[in-house]
What we know:
The protein has helices at 23-33, 50-59, 90-95, 118-128, 145-156, 168-184, 248-255, 264-278, 280-283, 288-299, and strands spanning 9-14, 38-43, 64-67, 87-88, 100-103, 112-115, 137-141, 160-165, 191-195, 208-211, 236-239, 259-261. The protein has 301 residues and is of the alpha/beta class. Strand 8, helix 6 (168-184) and strand 9 (191-195) form a beta-alpha-beta unit. Helix 4 (118-128) packs across helix 8. The longest helix is centred in the middle third of the chain and has 17 residues, at 168-184. It is globular, with a radius of gyration of 20 Å. The two termini are 14 Å apart.
Amino acid sequence: MTHFDGKTATLCIFGHPVAHSKSPAMHNALFKALDINAAYLPYAPEPENFADAIRGFRAMGFRGANVTIPYKTEFTGNDGAPKLIDELSEISTFTGSVNTLYWKDGIVGGTLCGTTTDPYGCIRNLEENGVQASNKKVALLGNGGAAKAIAYTLVEQGNALTIVCRSIEKGQALADSLNELFAKAGKGSTVKAVTFGDFSKVSPEQDIIINATSVGMTPNVDESPLPKECLHAGQAVCDIVYTPVQTKLLQMAAAQGCKVVTGEGMLVHQGIESFRKWFPAETANKQNSELATIMRKGMQG
């Protein structure tokens, strides 16, 4: 980031606030390591100016962008059609959430696309820790925005999914929508829903448990979405919360003999998935582990 010229590609993250984001450090570290002439900057447009910011992104020919709170849901209209951009991925159409903007076929100024890499970050984080989330029995805690995206990806990976929720009506609605969507695509899926109160009845049969709620996040560090009785030796337990790194849920899981996967790796791996959208040729021969190492060093300064 010491030299810029007329060929420097510009990328960014949109959020409000965004000063706390670790994405610039991660991506700029990759630019340096891979010798890519690009810069990644944080922008915090006011909500009333966000549409203008996206128009500016187009007009200035930015190479790509990430999107974080509160703007992830600004790209889908009430009818499910793309808003502010030209195309939505299937997963973003389903979830209504976008965290990555990129140009179709890499043609800057052409078709602007939106997708979410957040759930793939969760899957890759599991894989990095030796947990293969495919063709397994997986329990997903929560049915909010993060849970919805992760649920889609888990079903896509061929897992038998159980959604654990407070409201059985909302959980069943998500299960039904996933089963219907994948049935239309000619892919069988098995998605069920149970309440937290009933989860103990099916918890022993789960291979993986993923917490996609905010329960246990700072400052409520003494809270857990599940009691220890729902955690069984040999299971893998993952928390997407990464502040604190070792949540109450993960502490209990470790004590019960479970494999524990913290949430900090999810941030890195969703970033890798975004980066591959922007620079497919430059990353084609790079392993995720190599890219993750560079990103983590960048985050540490």
